[in-house]
Amino acid sequence: MWRYKTTDEMPVPQFYSEDQLYHYGILGMKWGVRRAFYKLRSADGLKKGQSKIENDINKLERKISKNRHKYIRFFSKGSKKLYRGDTRSAGRSFKKSAKALKRIEKREKTLRHNKRLLELYQQRIAELDNRIITEGKAVVNN
What we know:
By secondary structure, the protein is mainly α.
């Protein structure tokens, strides 16, 4: 994946040194995007990935619940303060509730993505299990 380019392979501008390290990565891969591990060939690797995704989903659901409680708490505090006439501190409470709502939306989007990914893992594991069973039947029958 890593290799040095020399002057024989490309012309070197004056501001470059003679030997430079270049990294090409995976062609077509976008920055910050992980590879789709649900396309692996081994069922064991897929099951480990599936359990990791399930743990992530549980963690996200807990965080979403916690932020919903924060949102409700800050919004109700802001409403009470606004009713009393304290607009400055009410504004701060509403700002905190808006921040909690933004976190909720972000985590719900991630949760939807992880649930879709979990479905892909489960489909791939089912495909591999069926293929292994049919190969085993072919070996036994011959």
